[in-house]
Amino acid sequence: MRIAIALVVASIALAVGSLGGSAATQSGIRGTVIKGPTTPVCREGIPCSAPAAGVVLVFARNGVEVARSKTLPNGSFRVVLAPGTYVVRTLRKFPIGGMHLRAVRVLKGRFTVANFEIDTGIR
């Protein structure tokens, strides 16, 4: 009897915990931004790219900016967004190189993984 009651209580707790604004119902985009090349001449055994820390990404839907996210020191980012398609760009304009605009689709209840590269223009 005690086991049956414990199972019922655990089931109710799980059901209540899954309601509302839990992380399972959030959606958005997460990923990493890298920059490269980081030197004019790439050499074997030495990385020619690096995490793009502190880059501000802008997320727009139907031409309207809806969110921004700043990359961490390891180049990663995570932004909560409603389901839909977003165009992602950098806040900063680069005179040479830069990051290409890209459309990313966000599905309900999921974080879409989108990794980006910034061309530094070093040649």
Radius of gyration: 21 Å
Q: Outline, from the CA principal axes? A: elongated
Largest sheet entry: 5 strands, mixed
CATH architecture: Sandwich
Query: What is the CATH topology classification name?
Result: Immunoglobulin-like
Mean pLDDT value = 84
Kindly report how far apart the N and C termini lie: 74 Å
Helix percent band: 10-25%
**Beta-strand percentage range:** 35-45%
Structural class: mainly beta
Number of domains: 1
DSSP strand tally: 9
What's the SSE pattern?
A: HEEEEEEEEE
Low-confidence stretches are: 4-21
Keywords:
Immunoglobulin-like, mainly beta, four-stranded antiparallel beta sheet, five-stranded mixed beta sheet
Task: Kindly summarize this structure in a few lines.
The chain is mainly beta and 123 residues long.
Any overview of this molecule?
This protein has 1 helix and 9 strands. It has 123 residues and is mainly beta. The chain has one domain (23-119): Immunoglobulin-like. Strands 1, 2, 5, 8 and 9 form a 5-stranded mixed sheet that branches. A hairpin with a 2-residue loop joins strand 3 (56-61) and strand 4. The radius of gyration is 21 Å and the shape is elongated.
Helices, strands, pairings?
Blueprint: H1 2-17, E1 28-36, E2 50-51, E3 56-61, E4 64-70, E5 76-80, E6 84-90, E7 102-106, E8 111-113, E9 116-119
